[in-house]
Design the sequence.
């Protein structure tokens, strides 16, 4: 009985952790209006400033500020900031090498005040100064959808795997009793 509880608890814990991992890395899409773009110089321990001088290799990180209340200008402002960095050949495997081009497109969309669809991954965690990373920016059309098929397929496969594991465990435990 105690072994059964431990096994189910372990599977539930692994399901929770793996779901968080999937939620972070699978792409999500949203409609937004770009209201600002900027470049900041960072090193391994954060933003390079007079209080935090560069103490190693330095790189430029692009940031894109958006506003998501274009449909209700009188409502509360829903601002969101995105990071725009290359992923290169390493994990996550988005093979993004065009962050400067994405930043130029973002600047053009900002100047033209056009609604865009942003595909990104990651979470915005203020406490850790974490920003979601943009993968692509495209102009929105009237029929633009924010559904991400990769996200739904990934979560569907994840759910199918954990349902299969749970059913297998239940059969195994019922067989032994």
Sequence:
């Amino acid at each position: 009985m105690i072994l059964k509880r431990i096994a189910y608890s372990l599977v539930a814990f692994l399901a929770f952790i793996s779901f968080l991992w999937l939620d972070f890395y699978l792409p999500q899409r949203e409609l937004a209006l770009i209201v600002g773009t900027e470049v900041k110089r960072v090193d391994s321990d954060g933003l390079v400033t007079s209080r935090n001088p560069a103490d190693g290799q330095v790189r430029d990180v692009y940031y894109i500020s958006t506003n998501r209340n274009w449909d209700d200008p009188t409502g509360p402002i829903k601002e969101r900031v995105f990071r725009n960095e290359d992923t290169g050949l390493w994990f996550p495997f988005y093979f993004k090498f065009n962050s400067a081009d994405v930043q130029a497109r973002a600047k053009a969309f900002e100047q033209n005040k056009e609604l865009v669809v942003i595909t990104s991954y990651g979470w915005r965690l203020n406490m850790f100064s974490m920003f979601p990373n943009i993968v692509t920016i495209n102009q929105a059309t009237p029929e633009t959808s924010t559904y991400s098929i990769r996200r739904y397929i990934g979560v569907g496969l994840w759910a199918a795997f954990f349902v299969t594991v749970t059913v297998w465990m239940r059969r195994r435990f019922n067989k032994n009793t």
